[in-house]
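Hey team,

Filing this mostly as a record. A colleague (T.K.) asked me to run one chain through the structure pipeline before their review meeting, and I want the input and output archived in the tracker in case anyone asks later how it was produced. No errors, nothing strange. Just documentation.

Input sequence:
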Amino acid sequence: MKRIIKKVFPQTIPVMAGYISLGIAFGLLLQSIGYGPVWAFLMSLFIYAGSAQFLAVELLAAGATLTHIALLTFLLNFRHLFYGLSMIEKYRSTGIGKIYLIFGLTDETYALLTGYKTPEGLSDKSNFFAVTLMNHLYWILGSVIGSVAGSIIPFDLTGIDFAMTALFAVLVVEQWKTNKNHIPAISGFVITVAALFIFGADNFLIPALIVMSVALLFMKGTLSREKSNE
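Output structure:
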């Protein structure tokens, strides 16, 4: 286990920095509406969806029903269905453990698993589990720290949510440097910008993901051949 952590930890450092910071922010917000560390721990353990958890804080504060919260969470995390489609082959040999891997496939974990090669001496399965579990633990740790701190010290949270945007930027740069073929990244950028202009800021995400998924399916053969030749 120590050997696995030693090999996997370096690639999770950007996510660790972002998740602990954002987890703290979430814990502080949750504490501010009267839900303490136990709730922060349980939500991060069983829900584990950063943006959805922030949304849940607002909805709980507004007195929304659980049905309303569940529906909005599903719509907010709908993009994960497309992540899963691209991970089917990678997770095929992971056995029953794929249930946890699917549950733990956040934006950042997906970026790491698709942007980094498995460290030498580790199996893909071990790498997948280690990255997913470590990222999950970072988020839980940050949430609990934030909730405990919020019960003791008042904080000004202005601007702390920008940490998620900064984290995405770091991961994009790392993926660009790691992968020689930039066609998927460029295609994703162009498709997203086009969808933004066509559908508007409130409705562009799902159409962009659908078009990107179709485009990547068409490019799958070419990308696989190029990867095998590296």
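Quick notes for T.K.: The chain has eleven helices and no strands. The chain has a mean pLDDT of 81.
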